[in-house]
Amino acid sequence: MDAQRARVRPAVRRPLAALLLAAPLLLASCGRAPAARRVEPRVRAVLETHGVAALPAPPPADSVPLLLVADAAASALAPAKRPPGAALPAPEAVVSAAVPFAPGALRDVRFIRLRDARGAAVPLRAKPLAVWPRGRSIRSALLVFRAALAPGERAIYTLDFGAPSPSSPSQRADRPLTQAPPAPWLTQVPQPFEVPPAAVLDEALLPNPDGPIAAVLPPSWYAASLVSGPQLPAMDDRRFPGFEAGIEGALARMTPAYDAYGVTCSAPYRTYYDGPHALYQRFLRNGDAARYRRARAEAVWYRQHELRFSPDRRLAVHVCEREDWSPAAPLSWPVLRRMLGQGMVDDYLLTGDPAAREAVLAMGEALRQNQAALTGGREDVLRVTERNMAWVMMTLSSYYALDPRPELLSTLRGLADRTVAWQRQGASGAFEHDLTRADPSECERGPRGGSPFMTALLVDALMDYHALTGDPRVREVVARAAGWLAERAITSDGRAFRYLWGCETDAYDDSGTADLNLLIVPVFGAAYALTREPRWIEVGDALADVGVKEMLVKEPKHWNQAMRAFGRYLGYRAALPVAASEGQRAAGR
């Protein structure tokens, strides 16, 4: 499919407090396109210089602004029944916010407090949604409270989450999540001044992610939390402004519209390359309510139209799989790439919707039970192409992220073992396989080759696995894959990657698929994140410049592949030292 398309086209982590310095400015921009897309960079720099001086003092490191945005829905009170000149009453609504936290930032949701725009305490209830498997700190917490906003109104609340004062030993942050606080904990703690009450645990809490009021955090907060991998806020992307403008413009102008596509088991389809994940990446990099609503709608659409659950709802597979499928038979290749674990775990960690958790666990369990059939039959299905291993590892990592049981960790480590052994069987650094077996129409003879873009998907999966487990072997695997891409898989003109490497009947030595650079360069970002060798960013930036110029985002498949991948590359390179980063920007001018 991609080959046919090609032939018709021309030949460390920053400290949390530092990231939050820009929070008020970022919140002010929520709901509209980032400034980098509206003014020239040099003009924008002048505006920012004057704007920063007028900003209020940044919030402390243990608090974050929470923006509430009410839908602009018409009031239920008819104008004819309202006294002349009377103001519309602000309806009260249940608001829920899933708040992600960086590893180690929070260990007990009872330390969370909420203040409204006037600084008054807001009663709330909270529960942890997931923990980071390493260290067991909270990865995301669900908060539910009430707020009254008129249609279209906005308000900035403040979320405090720091540990209480040392004078309050009963509020220690290392209290186990399962240990109930003493009865006087909320009311009789000696305090030199009044502070908002802490959150109350409620395991029966019901989220309201589609309520009339959305609650969002600054993109700098989402980036620091690593909730969906490394990110860079869109308005901070001064190196690749063309990407920011191009990706947004393409989504707005796509014909037919993105959400006009349906479910198909053969042609390009709406959620190819994980549409929910791509749209959540877009939201996280911008932090506004409109993009949140769009990503949320896509996640719900996927579950309603593309998943089929077993009668007991313990297993779920894509609707393109045979209806009589059981774990004794290997899932088909096209179905493996339609099991969207990353997008569903995004939806759960950012909304708390139990339906998203159910989908992640059911898809993950189907893949866990299917391991013997996938790897022990007539062929190892997971090693037919890098993509097959990638999608399975992504979904099982998402499963483990929400249910970190030892047996799931064992399954994941087994996949990592197979991936390490696969790469070591060849000397190139690629995950070598029979290209003809994968697709004879793309390569008539290629007994040992590799696919750069599929390798990028596998590296993405390995980085998800590494974030959860810290497996030290990932560093060598990713560095070797990056070396292969940089030294052997680039076209002779240096502008792109060979669509396939090692095909004896077609060298693919042209840059007709340079748009795929945006999908592949995150491998260099991952290599930099693991080795801290700046050369990987130098290689990545050079190829990213070409990829941005050749962006192909005319349908959901292409838009998804660019959005899901390149945002992560920007997140990896955001850890560059300031001096090196400035040099990279100068080189790109």
At a glance:
The protein is of the alpha+beta class and 589 residues long.
Largest sheet: 4 strands, antiparallel
What is the terminal-to-terminal distance?
35 Å
Helix content: 40-55%
- Estimate the strand proportion: 5-15%
Give the spatial strand order of the biggest sheet. 3-6-1-8
Mean pLDDT, to the nearest integer, reads: 83
**What's the total number of strands?**
10
Number of helices: 22
Shape: globular
Structure description:
The protein has 589 residues and is an alpha+beta fold. Helix content is 42%, strand content 10%. The chain is built from 22 helices and ten strands. A four-stranded antiparallel sheet has the order 3-6-1-8. The chain has a four-stranded mixed sheet with strand order 2-5-4-7. β9 (307-309) and β10 (316-318) form a beta hairpin. The chain is globular, with a radius of gyration of 24 Å. The two termini are 35 Å apart. The model is unreliable at 1-61, 74-82 and 164-196 (pLDDT under 50).
Tell me the layout of helices and strands.
Blueprint: H1 2-7, H2 16-20, H3 23-29, H4 41-53, E1 63-70, E2 92-100, E3 113-115, E4 124-131, E5 138-148, E6 154-160, E7 200-201, E8 213-216, H5 219-225, H6 241-253, H7 275-286, H8 289-306, E9 307-309, E10 316-318, H9 333-336, H10 341-351, H11 354-369, H12 371-376, H13 386-402, H14 406-424, H15 435-438, H16 452-469, H17 473-487, H18 517-520, H19 522-531, H20 535-549, H21 556-573, H22 578-588
Parallel strand pairs: 4-7
Antiparallel strand pairs: 1-6, 1-8, 2-5, 3-6, 4-5, 9-10
Helix pairs in contact: 5-7, 7-8, 7-10, 7-21, 10-11, 10-13, 11-13, 13-14, 13-16, 16-17, 17-19, 19-20, 19-21
